[in-house]
Amino acid sequence: MHIVSQIFSFLNDVLLKMTWLSKAVALLVENVFGLSIEDRVGASVHFFIYDTLKIFILLSVLIFIVSYIQSYFPPEKTKKILGRLKGIKGSILGALLGTITPFCSCSSIPVFIGFTSAGLPLGVTFSFLISSPLVDLASLMVLMSFFGAKIAVAYVVVGILLAIIGGTIIDKLKMEKYIDDYVWGTENTDMEPIELSQKERISYSREQVMGIIKRVWPYTLIGVGIGALIHNYIPQPVIEKVVGSSNPFAVILATLVGIPMYADIFGTIPIAEALFARGVGIGTVLSFMMAVTALSLPSIIMLSRVVKPKLLTLFVSIVTIGIIIIGYTFNAFSYLFI
Amino acid sequence: MIIKILGAGCEKCSKLEENTQKAVEELGIDASIEKVEDLRGIMAYGVMSVPALVVDDKVKAVGRILTVKEIKKYLK
Questions:
Q1: Over pLDDT 90: what percentage of chain A?
Q2: Range of the domain at A51
């Protein structure tokens, strides 16, 4: 059994943590740039190059693999699977399918209308809409790479729980009347399932990688830049006071700051990692990441077109409060993970 | 042949339209290309991920950009 854990550690170090990359970049910084990684400038340069490379490598490989898997689960198929499942069973399956269905915020309205007009209960649809951007295979891998398997799995579990509970609450409150009328007026059409060939799946996966890199590279670089600043330039007392352990409202602050931000997990990871390395609570850091991915101004604006203000506010509030609770819980139980 | 590109003004949708126009040109066939941007029109096909390619009212591809070569296959 010991050998199994050794093999796992090895794979983890090589593929996900990329310790070899860190060493290689360190050599580059010290021998080619002539900077010592012990001092600020050298450390920042090392962080910047290593983190950027690591993220882009992960991005490419992960998105490719994940897109390939996701090509088997288009939302049209999910709609059929969820069918007329009601109540908590529906919410559970909705949340789980949300994690493996490819999702871009441009599809939140079509998905919402599609599911609702097909007769799926509101709660199921919302469970899907919460879990889709919040938890997905790529985030799981990225979190494993930067924070280790325990935290990654815990994040996925609470994310799915949040989606299930959130969806169930919305269901129980019978918020159907807060959906715009034209959604109900839309007739349900079931699309004939399209089976993709191997070649098409690969073409799709490659296109996803290119598309996402094109879209996120500036945010990623900014994220790494901020991460480098946090790592080396912002004084510890400042971090402590604002988001560290001396601020009891750190989780709330981190959540509220993250909500309007529109970035995906790859942009926030370097910031989160740097904060964590500087002693910010794991809960605070996770709340920030969840707030950024689960809710964003563009998707809220789009949802506001199909959902009336009361329901929209309820949705945003549930997710926000849920994230805050998760943050405090993780901070309280952080000794289990670290 | 009536070709419809379903998509509400996102970059992927324009790219699909572009590739479709190229495919039609290169094949030299008589086909009209229509961009469907309103939600109702898109939902009418049961499509939830855009862009989507519809040829003579049959949905050929959903949620991805097809290369000119792939589009030509569906147009023959």
A1: 20
A2: 2-184+200-336
Question: What is residue A62's predicted lDDT score, i.e. its pLDDT?
Answer: 86
Mark residue B28 as left, alpha or beta (left: phi above 0; alpha: psi -120 to 50; beta: remaining). Answer: left
Q: Which of B10, B42, B49 sits opposite A74 (nearest CB)?
A: B49
- pLDDT tens, position by position, A214-228: 888 888 899 899 988
Which one of B1, B2, B10, B29 is the catalytic residue?
B10
For the beta carbon of residue A310, count every other beta carbon within 10 angstroms: 11
Q: How many domains does chain A have?
A: 1
Please give, rounded to a whole number of angstroms, the shortest distance from the CA of A190 to a CA of chain B. 5
User: How many Å is the maximal CA-CA distance in chain B?
Assistant: 31
Q: How far is the alpha carbon of A76 from chain B, nearest alpha carbon, in Å?
A: 6
Would the ipTM clear 0.85, i.e. be above it?
no
pTM: 0.83
Instruction: Reply yes or no on whether B13 is catalytic.
Output: yes
In a domain, A166, yes or no: yes
Please give the residue of chain A at the shortest CA–CA distance from B13: A106
Q: Provide the domain limits for residue B28.
A: 2-75
What is d(CA A135, CA A245) in angstroms, rounded to the nearest whole number? 27
* Distance, C-alpha A65 to centroid of its chain: 16
Flag if A189 and B46 touch (Cβ within 8 Å).
yes
What gap in Å lies between CA A153 and CA B35, rounded to an integer? 43
Q: Which of chain B's residues have a Cβ under 8 Å away from the Cβ of A74?
A: 48-49, 62-63
Please determine, for residue A323, whether its predicted confidence score (pLDDT) is greater than 90: yes
Q: Span A184-191, mean pLDDT?
A: 80
CA of B73 to nearest chain A CA: how many angstroms apart? 12
Per the omega criterion (within 30 degrees of 0), is the bond before A133 cis?
no
CATH number, position B29? 3.40.30.10
Position A190 in a domain: no
Domain total in chain B: 1
Residue A194 lies inside a defined structural domain of this protein: no
Which residues of chain A lie closer than 8 angstroms to B60, CB-CB?
A: 194
Contacts of A111 in chain B (CB under 8 A): 48
Q: Is residue A195 part of a domain?
A: no
Yes or no: say if B65 and B20 are a contact pair by the CB < 8 Å rule: no
Strand partners, B33: B3
Lowest mean pLDDT segment, chosen from A64-73, A183-192, B9-18: A183-192
Tell me the pLDDT band of A303, cut-offs 50, 70 and 90.
confident
| Contact status of B8 with chain A (Cβ, < 8 Å) | yes
